[in-house]
Specification:
The complex is a heterodimer of chains A (about 1050) and B (about 325).
Chain A (H helix, E strand, L loop, with lengths): L6 H17 L3 H11 L4 H6 L1 H13 L6 H17 L5 H15 L13 H16 L3 H5 L7 H17 L3 H14 L13 H26 L7 H18 L2 H6 L12 H6 L5 H22 L5 H17 L8 H10 L6 H16 L7 H24 L2 H18 L3 H6 L1 H14 L7 H5 L17 H4 L14 H17 L2 H14 L1 H18 L16 H15 L2 H4 L7 H4 L32 H25 L7 H12 L4 H18 L4 H7 L1 H11 L6 H13 L6 H17 L1 H32 L4 H7 L3 H24 L6 H8 L20 H16 L5 H14 L1 H29 L8 H20 L3 H12 L8 H17 L1 H11 L28 H16 L2 H8 L3
Helix pairs in contact in A: 1-2, 1-4, 2-5, 4-5, 4-6, 5-7, 6-7, 6-9, 7-10, 9-10, 9-11, 10-12, 11-12, 11-15, 12-16, 16-17, 16-18, 17-19, 17-20, 19-20, 19-22, 20-25, 25-27, 26-27, 26-28, 27-28, 27-31, 28-31, 31-33, 32-33, 32-35, 32-36, 35-36, 35-37, 36-38, 37-38, 37-42, 38-40, 38-42, 38-43, ...
Chain B lengths: L9 E3 L6 E7 L9 E6 L3 E6 L4 E7 L6 E6 L5 E6 L3 E6 L6 E7 L9 E6 L2 E7 L6 E6 L3 E6 L10 E7 L8 E6 L3 E6 L4 E7 L5 E7 L4 E6 L3 E7 L5 E8 L5 E6 L5 E6 L3 E6 L5 E6 L5 E6 L10 E5 L4 E4 L6
Antiparallel strand pairs in B: 1-28, 2-3, 3-4, 4-5, 6-7, 7-8, 8-9, 10-11, 11-12, 12-13, 14-15, 15-16, 16-17, 18-19, 19-20, 20-21, 22-23, 23-24, 24-25, 26-27, 27-28
Classes of the chains: A mainly alpha (about 1050), B mainly beta (about 325).
């Protein structure tokens, strides 16, 4: 809204006020001038700049004391003139500069600027600021000559004084801003960019101020927090800008050896000038390092995030400009930077990441050996302190410590190998990891959770819940931390190591640790798994890509050697339970280190004392080791993808071995590994995986069967194979089942019970695969009653048929052997196996070969008869249950006469012991025996169709196990007995249960009937009540539901 | 104490029939995988990939009749197979082909394996039992031109030839043929003269298999008896008994001296493979895995000694692979 556009008009308007001001320096006159200025256009004012400034400058220069308010308004007026115009003359600039500074200088020689009012100070600072901004190009550079050094120095110390000592925040900030402009580092755009020589010259000049500036600023930065964050932020910025300029590597590199001689007339000034030679820069760097350390310590924990953000900028700036000159400080700087990666403020975090990324991308570390050394030193000391820190810090502390570790590694990037190549570094680092990763092995549950028998998990199609197993990994519990984040960081540490590090070296080292001691084995295996994942670039978060991609062959080589070690007998077959069934076979396997176990348990002893040497901790540890190794296999598969198919030859068998393990955790982990392998190798399902690699598995089974110690494992593998596969497997499996049978033939004494399970799975699998085709035909022959009971278990019906067939066959053979040749014509129909009926030549003379599956079933059955008389009770029971299921009549009588009394009396006598026992009892053999009897008894009674008398015996013996005092498993098993009894004889069971406890009052339907009195009525709640009520409820459901539904429900849990 | 005999390194299953002959082809450079050819009773030739231990290809060229001899001719892509259909087939397997390029009708009803000898680049001599019961015919391959027919003297009563071995002292010298006959004798034939140079009765029963070490000029033969016979050739080109080695169980179906001439392996009717030192016939190991007669044994020709293998094929349909190089 300029009124006066031309200089002439403006001059006319301004002249009177200027004259008046020259005559009388009063605030009114200044104000008038100021008012008139507003009406003058910028271009006109530029023409009249010096004219207008004259009265104002005059007012400042008038000798004698002046009114502070007047000075202030004059300075403000100068400011407004300068803001609208630009200074084009060097002399004007220098004079104005010095005049403005003088306004604040103490009247005498005392160094106290505080005598002035705050408003004045602010006005002067702003005027200086405006002055610097209204001057351009070469003109401003005239201020930065050696000759003006004293003037500059004066201004700098003045402003520093203000920044440090003023209370007012505004002044502090303005002074710092002004200083920033003064050292030509203004944030705003529009300043001329200095060329190299000019910058060099300025650097030389500012070097003289560096001590003063840096010390003062560090005081400001580490000053009272109450000053607010803004002065601190400005001070930090100014600090790094000035240090970054004076200590810039590029400038220092250009400094000549000797100080330049200035002309003689400037010799005094020359003394003030600093020569930034090597000595100077070295000593300055040392001093700066101290200051930086203090500043970093202080501001990295500053409560305000902007301060921390500025700290990130500081590191960034210095690292970019002074990575050589200030190398000694980077230990602290990088520590701060890396530490801030996990700042609570997301802006700090992301900026920090950006900076780190930038550092990595520009290969600052890679190209600067000294910096890499600094980092590796930091890493070393951190690794040294790590175990102690992990012991003493809380989880948050651990997270930050580990982030720091991770940050160092990431920053080192490809230079990690410097660290790894030093034995002591690698040693420290790996030992620290080993200690931190130590697992907590005190959980008894891990050992306790068992896969009970194979029946419960034997799904009809061996289907695995893909989704459930996928991507899951059993949560591990560590000794030194609980936070998941800590583990993730440790994982990343290992992966980053694997990503950049020399894989051979790392694998070799950690393999060394793995085999060195049982103490480190689990941790080393974990580390190895992560290393490999990292080496393949799986799930690793890094700042810069590595230069050399890993060679697939190298990776494969490493993986193969690790796999060999994992699946080595000493590391794969560990004691995970004190189950005698499993231990018996172990002695010939050599265990090393921690897992050492004195063998030689006697198999014939029914109740051996629990192994004193194998504690649950050891077993827990062994279980974890196996699981970690299994996870490793899955991880390796993921790394190699389809390439892993070649390794299946050696890797699949051990995994399947573990999938059949009785420890729940192991078998689940192994199944998970199988799913991982499927995915990596491109198989649709576990079934596909097993089917397509059955040749490898069969080979493994067949070879392992040759060694006594491995027979149980081999049978486990076969077991797993059978459960997860289909009929297409038969031709291959047939071959190996023959091997199993012939092996069994050689070792009935000690291996029978292991093989029995396999035989059972074989039969179940056969029934599953071929059962449905012949099942229908057979069912027609069944009585309606039988059908109603077992319809849901159609599978067993068929096996029964096979058994029946076998026995018929057997009887006939025997008769023939005794010379009692039967009448051919009549027997023919019975003789021909029903399965072979469809064959056209079945009625012709001679042996009709059975279909292979039937032949197989027959072979299996032949073995089973021998086992009925086995010395081991468990074996006998198992066989008995199986046989009873198939051919009840045959056995009932002998069972009730010989077996039942012994079983019931054993149950009765053991009951008080188990009722008293604590949780450890679950691991004793007595417990397992009780459990086996209880679990088997119910179905046995049902299958054998026992008489009432016997049923009562059974019920009596089992009733005491319904007591709440008994271990839960026994209670459940006892419940199952009653559930079976309910099917055989619901009424008497109801009565028996009601005798114990009766929840209802039964009103007689007619008053002439006597009221019902059951001895369980109206009883107090006692140890049996809960279980009895539960059973009664089930009974009620069963009675109201259709029979088959009841049968299904009643199958053992 | 001696180490217990090792287990097989691997067992190849899936031939579906008794295995009668095996031949390795591992001499090729990477990335070619080592290969094992097997010929079985159902007439199939299986090409086993020894990296994956799986069948790469199945060749069917003998109309379901038992294949009892498989040889390669200078690489894994040219294969010779002999079957009970009285045919010798030459196969081209290059670039995944599976075609019979040429065949020879032997008209012989026995099961005498033919013998091959490379005489020049791309030129081979093949000796085979001929139509006439006692005769051996030598052909040049691939031209199939007859080189000579070796007829025993009238009244020699050698019976049918049972096994053949073509060899020469060195590349330039005359090829010679060693033939084992039904009557238990081994005869050395000069091919150019078509004349028997020497005859030695080694066994009372038919000679089932023989192998010859042309460096030491020493050979070994086995029959259905409980004895191995070792014989040598003196300067006058006469065969003479060197030693006999008693066996525990009777019956040898195949004998192979390892290419490095340090040990030899025998395939026994007792289901076992036996390893002997070649120098003194010291028994070294009994490899027990098969559940039926072992029909053939073969050593691999892998460039890398520690990857060399021994394979044995048996009537139980399985081929067992053993790694015995490191132990001996």
């Amino acid at each position: 809204m300029a009124v006066f556009d031309t200089p002439q008009e403006a001059f006319g308007a301004l002249r009177p006020v200027c004259v008046q001001l020259t005559r009388a320096q009063t605030m009114e006159n200044v104000a008038r001038l100021q008012a008139h200025l507003a009406a003058v256009s910028t271009s006109a004012l530029q023409e009249l700049q010096e004219y207008v400034l004259f009265p104002l400058r005059f007012a400042l220069k008038v000798p004698g004391p002046k009114q502070e308010r007047l000075v202030q308004s004059v300075v403000q007026c100068i400011s407004s003139v300068l803001a609208a115009t630009c200074v084009k003359k060097r002399e004007l600039l220098q004079e104005l500069f010095s005049e403005l500074c003088t306004c604040l200088s103490p009247p005498s020689s005392s160094s106290k600027p505080a005598a002035r009012s705050e408003e004045l100070k602010l006005a002067v600072i702003q005027a200086l600021h405006t002055l610097m901004h209204s001057t351009y190009g070469d003109v401003i550079l005239s201020l930065y000559q050696p000759s003006t050094l004293p003037l500059l120095g004066f201004a700098v110390s003045l402003l520093l004084g203000l920044a440090e000592q003023e209370k007012a925040k505004q002044i502090k900030i303005s002074a710092l801003k002004c200083l920033q402009v003064l050292v030509l580092q203004c944030d705003c755009q529009g300043h001329r960019h200095l060329d190299e020589d000019e910058a060099q010259q300025c650097g030389d000049l500012f070097a003289s101020f560096l001590p003063g500036i840096s010390i003062t600023l560090s005081r400001v930065i580490t000053g009272d927090i109450k000053q607010g964050h803004k002065p601190t932020v400005s001070a930090i910025r100014l600090f790094y800008l000035i240090v970054g300029l004076v200590m810039a590597d590029t400038q220092l590199a250009r400094i000549p050896k000797n100080k330049e001689k200035l002309p003689v007339e400037q010799s005094r000034i020359s003394e003030l000038m600093v020569h930034r030679g090597p000595d100077w820069s070295k000593s300055t760097a040392e001093k700066l390092s101290l200051l930086l350390h203090k500043m970093v310590e202080f501001s990295s924990v500053h409560p305000h995030w902007k301060v921390r953000l500025e700290l990130v900028e500081l590191v960034h700036h210095l690292l970019r400009n002074c990575s050589q000159s200030l190398v000694g400080s980077f230990s602290h700087l990088l520590k701060a930077l890396v530490g801030l990666v996990n700042d609570e403020n997301s802006e700090v975090q992301s900026r920090c990441n950006e900076v780190l990324q930038g550092i990595a991308e520009q290969r600052v570390v890679a190209q600067n050996r000294a910096l890499a050394d600094v980092l590796s030193e930091n890493l070393h000391s951190l690794a040294t302190a790590l175990p102690r820190l992990m012991n003493s810090q809380d989880d948050t502390g651990k997270v930050s410590t580990l982030s720091l570790l991770l940050g160092y590694l990431k920053l080192l990037g490809p230079k990690i190998n410097i660290v790894l190549n030093s034995i002591s570094h690698l040693h420290r680092l790996s030992k620290a990891l080993m200690q931190v990763l130590e697992l907590d092995v005190t959980d008894v549950k891990i050992v306790e959770d068992r896969r009970w028998g194979c029946e419960s998990t034997c799904g009809p199609s061996g289907s695995l819940q893909h989704a459930m197993l996928k991507g899951r990994c059993q949560k591990k519990y560590f000794r030194f931390f609980t936070e998941e984040k800590v583990f993730q960081l440790l994982q990343q540490v290992c992966r980053v190591l694997g990503y950049y590090g020399n894989l051979y070296l790392l694998v070799d080292h950690f393999m060394g640790l793995y085999s060195e001691s049982g103490m480190y084995r689990k941790q080393a295996a974990m580390a190895l798994n992560e290393l490999i994942a990292g080496a393949a670039g799986l799930g690793v978060d890094v700042l810069q890509e590595r230069e050399v991609l890993p060679n697939m062959d190298d990776l494969k080589g490493s993986i193969m050697s690790i796999l060999d070690e994992y699946t080595d007998q000493a590391n794969w077959y560990l004691i995970t339970s004190i189950d005698t069934e499993e231990i018996i076979h172990e002695p010939s396997v050599q265990h090393s280190g921690l897992s050492a176990h004195p063998g030689g348990t006697c198999s014939s002893v029914l109740l051996p004392s629990a192994e004193p040497h194998v504690t649950t901790h050891i077993m827990n540890s062994n279980i974890w080791q196996i699981c970690i190794q299994l996870e490793g296999v899955g991880c390796f598969a993921a790394v190699l993808g389809k390439e892993f198919r070649l390794l299946l030859l050696s890797a699949l068998y051990p995994v399947l071995e573990k999938a059949g393990d009785k420890t729940l955790l192991i078998s689940e982990t192994a199944l998970g590994t199988l799913v991982d392998i499927c995915e990596a190798c491109g198989y649709d399902s576990v079934q596909c995986l097993i089917n397509e690699n059955s040749d490898y598995l069969v080979n493994g089974i067949s070879l392992n069967l040759r060694q006594l110690a491995h027979q149980p494992h081999a049978s486990q593998v076969l077991d797993t194979m059978l459960r997860h596969s289909d009929a297409s497997l038969l031709p291959l499996v047939e071959d190996v089942i023959q091997d199993v049978l012939s092996t069994l033939d050689q070792s009935y004494n000690n291996q029978a019970s292991t093989f029995l399970r396999v035989l059972h799975s074989v039969m179940t699998a056969l029934v599953r695969w071929f059962g449905s085709s012949c099942g229908e035909e057979h069912q027609q022959r069944q009585t309606a009653e039988w059908r109603s009971r077992t319809l849901s278990q159609g599978q067993q019906v068929v096996t029964r048929q096979e058994v029946e067939q076998f026995f018929l066959d057997y009887v006939r053979q025997k008769q023939i052997a005794e010379g009692n040749l039967p009448d051919t014509g009549n027997e023919e129909a019975d003789e021909i196996p029903p399965l072979a009926k469809p064959e056209p030549n079945s009625d012709t003379e001679g042996e009709t070969p059975l279909p292979s599956h039937a032949q197989l079933a027959k072979d299996v059955m032949e073995r089973c008869i021998h086992l009925l008389s086995d010395g081991n009770l468990r074996v006998r029971l198992k066989v008995l249950c199986t046989l009873a299921q198939k051919c009840g009549d045959f056995l009932r009588q002998r069972f009730s006469k010989d077996v039942l009394p012994k079983l019931t009396s054993s149950l009765l006598s053991q009951a008080p012991a188990s009722a008293r026992a604590g949780p450890v009892y679950n691991h004793t053999l007595a417990f397992k025996l009780q459990l086996a009897v209880l679990e088997g008894l119910g179905s046995l009674c049902e299958k054998l169709d026992m008489g009432e008398n016997d049923l009562n015996k059974v019920a009596d013996a089992c009733l005491i196990y319904l007591s709440a005092k008994q271990p839960t498993k026994l209670q459940e098993a006892a419940q199952s007995v009653f559930l079976h009894l309910m099917h055989v004889d619901p009424d008497s069971t109801w009565l028996l249960l009601n005798e114990v406890c009766c929840p209802h009052q039964y009103e007689p339907p007619h008053i002439s009937l006597r009221p019902v009195k059951l001895s369980g009525m109206g009883r107090q709640r006692n140890e049996f009540t809960d279980n009895v009520l539960l059973l009664l409820e089930r009974l009620k459901q069963q009675e109201s539901a259709p029979p088959w539904a009841g049968a299904q429900e009643a199958s053992p849990p | 104490m001696a180490l217990p005999p090792p287990d097989p390194q691997f067992v190849l299953r899936g031939t579906g029939a008794a295995v009668h002959t095996l031949h390795f082809s591992c001499g090729n450079q990477e990335p070619d995988v080592p290969i094992l050819f097997s010929g079985s009773e159902n007439g199939f030739i299986h090409v086993w990939n020894l990296k994956t231990h799986r069948v790469d290809k199945t060749l069917d060229g003998h109309g379901g009749s038992s294949v009892y001899c498989v040889e390669t001719m200078g690489g894994k892509n040219r294969l010779l197979s002999q079957g009970r259909d009285q045919r010798i087939c030459l196969w081209d397997l290059a670039e995944g082909r599976t075609s019979v390029t040429n065949s020879v009708f032997t008209e012989n009803v026995g099961f005498c394996r033919c013998a091959l000898l490379k005489v020049a680049q791309g030129r081979w001599l093949m000796a085979m039992a001929a139509k006439a019961p006692e005769e051996v015919q030598v052909l040049e391959l691939p031209s199939k031109t007859s080189v000579c027919t070796l007829k025993p003297e009238v009244g020699a009563k050698l019976g049918m030839p049972m096994c053949l071995k073509l060899w020469q002292h060195n590349c330039d010298s005359q090829p010679l043929l060693l033939a084992g006959y039904e009557d238990g004798s081994v005869v050395l034939w000069n091919l150019s003269m078509g004349k028997a140079l020497s005859q030695l009765v080694c066994h009372q029963e038919p000679v089932m298999s023989l192998d010859f070490d042309s460096e030491k000029e020493k050979g070994i033969s086995g029959s259905s008896e409980k004895v191995l016979s070792i014989w040598s050739l003196n300067e006058q080109q006469n065969l003479q008994v060197y030693k006999t080695q008693k066996l525990v169980n009777a019956g040898i179906s195949d004998i192979t001296i390892r290419p490095d001439k340090k040990i030899l392996a025998t395939a026994g009717w007792d289901h076992r493979i036996r390893i002997f030192g070649w120098k003194k016939l010291k028994p070294l190991a009994v490899l027990d895995y098969h559940t039926a007669t072992v029909h053939c044994v073969s050593f691999s020709d892998h460039r890398n000694p520690c990857e060399r293998l021994l394979a044995a094929g048996s009537k139980d349909h399985r081929i067992s692979i053993w790694s015995i190089y490191t132990q001996t």
